[in-house]
């Protein structure tokens, strides 16, 4: 139970911090305002949520905060199948609570507008007309699969027994920052079905109609990345549980 609560709170923190920065702070005061954190700030915010969340909860639950990460670790032989579904449920629930809190905060501003037909509405993910850069379904799918796979490879490498101790959250957080720098123009960056679900529910029909992609592509990418690193590191024996601790 403590593991599930930790995953719930950690995912809540990721969505509130990452999506909150996009909704509340990215364009604060309008374009060109020096107080707005912009593209780079949002990417960094997502990375910071993972760094801080992993240090806070990694020793309790492994600090996945992402169904694709849980699936990838399972595919790589580092996570129990019996814990997979409970982890995913806890992650999605934590994300949804964060989405509700964020929407409640955003609605406290008279200038807040939610347009379900707009790309990136309420930090949602999308392709085609709902892609920030107008990228196609195929481009969005490829981006999410490849980047999620690489995210899992970094996670599994950084948490390996032979990796420098104590630095895994930093490497993982920087990887997520880089992923956002690459893919915000393409899909507004998911690589995390819980994060996508958390805001799509409140963003409206447009985001909900495309949510399937942001479950399928990250899960497939996570499984690919986990399998690849599981094969690469299969001759290395890790301490029990060490590889799961972010």
From TrEMBL:
Pfam families: MIP. A motif (NPA 1) lies at residues 66-68. A motif (NPA 2) lies at residues 192-194. It comes from the Bacteria. The record marks 19 as: Involved in tetramerization or stability of the tetramer. InterPro entries: Aquaporin-like (IPR023271), Aquaporin_transptr (IPR034294), Aquaporin_Z (IPR023743), MIP (IPR000425), MIP_CS (IPR022357). The record marks 46, 180, 189, 195 as: Selectivity filter. Signal peptide: none annotated. Keywords: Cell inner membrane, Cell membrane, Membrane, Repeat, Transmembrane, Transmembrane helix, Transport. The chain crosses the membrane at residues 35-57, 84-106, 135-155, 167-186, 212-232. It is found in: Cell membrane. The keyword Membrane applies. GO terms for cellular component: plasma membrane. Its main location: membrane. One of its GO terms (molecular function) is water channel activity. Homotetramer. Belongs to the MIP/aquaporin (TC 1.A.8) family. PANTHER family: AQUAPORIN TRANSPORTER, MIP17260P. Aquaporins contain two tandem repeats each containing three membrane-spanning domains and a pore-forming loop with the signature motif Asn-Pro-Ala (NPA). Channel that permits osmotically driven movement of water in both directions. It is involved in the osmoregulation and in the maintenance of cell turgor during volume expansion in rapidly growing cells. It mediates rapid entry or exit of water in response to abrupt changes in osmolarity. This is Aquaporin Z. The gene is aqpZ.
